[in-house]
Write a sequence for this structure.
């Protein structure tokens, strides 16, 4: 099967999360890999959902691991000018939900692993981890690590969108829900109640000026806080007795999410209840380690571009896999365009897909002799 055919086939599976429904796509990939001599382990993850582990194990050396997810975000409220599940092609663009984030990348490392089977059989083992539920907080990756006994790899390649530039880590994500309780009363007698929306609004004002007690990371920069949602009240002529705020905090290595959550609780006051929605740590690999040199050299040889230290602001399944694998050297490297992720008329450049296959093949070859 060709790279483009495989990408279009994967886009054809509707894996919008929620609900996900990744099992059919995972089974398809499993059948493809089994025909090529890979050992495949399909792991159910809720109704209609599954993670997949695939190995090619000629020896007992720590494997080179590629990972990617099959779920996508919803289509959005704006109409698409292309069929989001058809994989339509125009010039260098292949359109579809998940084309960039990240079914094109999954297709690329699958093709690379298949085409380098002989090199794998002579050298380094290759491990493929294909997950469900990444878009809602790496639920599938977490379930996979709790459910399966997976060996620590030599290094981890996360094929998220980077335009085929090697990134050495990403920020963490701490999404918090802040709930405020009040006392309802008639809107004409507000003094008889306690307004939860007002309490939440005061918290918003405080949080908008929040200062992190953390040094900026040399590459990832400063932590950030975004107030993403604000909900409160049921009707105009009642004092609202409930209001909620959702925060999106992006952290840098060295920050304690538990301590940060407690500090948010402190600054928003005793009337608030703070709970975590997503709690994923930052990931960073030293650009000076030997694995980084290997990735940098392989990527530079194919793209012709120097791979200076850089990182991503978005989170990936590495937030689960990297600490579970005892902080394995981790690199984010994929053909998608980060600027196209989650957008209407999402596309991936076909030239980037082919380039990614060449990079991944080069990584497999170099890893086999390292």
């Amino acid at each position: 099967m060709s790279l483009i055919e495989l990408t279009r086939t994967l886009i054809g599976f509707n894996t919008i999360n929620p609900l996900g429904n990744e099992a059919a796509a995972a089974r398809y990939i499993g059948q493809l890999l089994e025909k090529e001599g890979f050992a495949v382990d399909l792991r159910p993850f809720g109704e209609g959902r599954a993670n997949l582990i695939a190995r090619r194990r000629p020896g007992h050396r720590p494997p080179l691991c590629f990972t990617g997810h099959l779920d996508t975000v919803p289509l959005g409220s704006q109409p698409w000018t292309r069929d989001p599940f058809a994989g339509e092609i125009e010039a260098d663009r292949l359109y579809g939900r998940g084309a960039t984030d990240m079914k094109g990348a999954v297709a690329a490392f699958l093709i690379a692993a298949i085409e380098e089977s002989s090199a794998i059989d002579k050298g380094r083992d290759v491990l493929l981890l294909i997950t469900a539920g990444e878009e809602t907080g790496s639920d599938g990756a977490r379930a996979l690590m709790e459910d399966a006994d997976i060996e620590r790899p030599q290094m981890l390649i996360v094929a998220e969108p980077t335009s085929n530039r090697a990134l050495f880590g990403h920020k963490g994500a701490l999404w918090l829900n802040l709930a405020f309780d009040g006392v309802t009363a008639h809107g004409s007698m507000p003094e008889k109640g306690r307004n939860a929306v007002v309490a939440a609004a005061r918290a918003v004002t405080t949080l908008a000026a929040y200062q992190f007690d953390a040094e900026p990371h040399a590459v990832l920069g400063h932590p950030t806080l975004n107030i993403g949602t604000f909900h409160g009240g049921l009707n105009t002529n009642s004092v609202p007795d409930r209001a909620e705020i959702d925060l999106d905090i992006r952290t840098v290595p060295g920050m304690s999410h538990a301590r940060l959550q407690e500090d948010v609780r402190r600054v928003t006051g005793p009337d608030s209840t703070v709970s975590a929605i997503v709690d994923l740590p930052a990931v960073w690999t030293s650009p000076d380690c030997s694995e980084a040199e290997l990735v940098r050299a392989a990527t530079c040889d194919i793209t012709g571009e120097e791979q200076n230290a850089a990182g991503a602001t978005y989170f990936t399944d590495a937030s689960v896999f990297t600490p579970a694998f005892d902080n394995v050297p981790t690199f984010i490297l994929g053909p998608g365009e980060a600027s196209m992720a989650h957008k209407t008329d999402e596309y991936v450049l076909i030239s980037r897909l082919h380039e990614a296959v060449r990079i991944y093949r080069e990584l497999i070859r170099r890893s086999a002799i390292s």
In short: The chain has ten helices and 15 strands. The two ends are 30 Å apart (CA to CA).
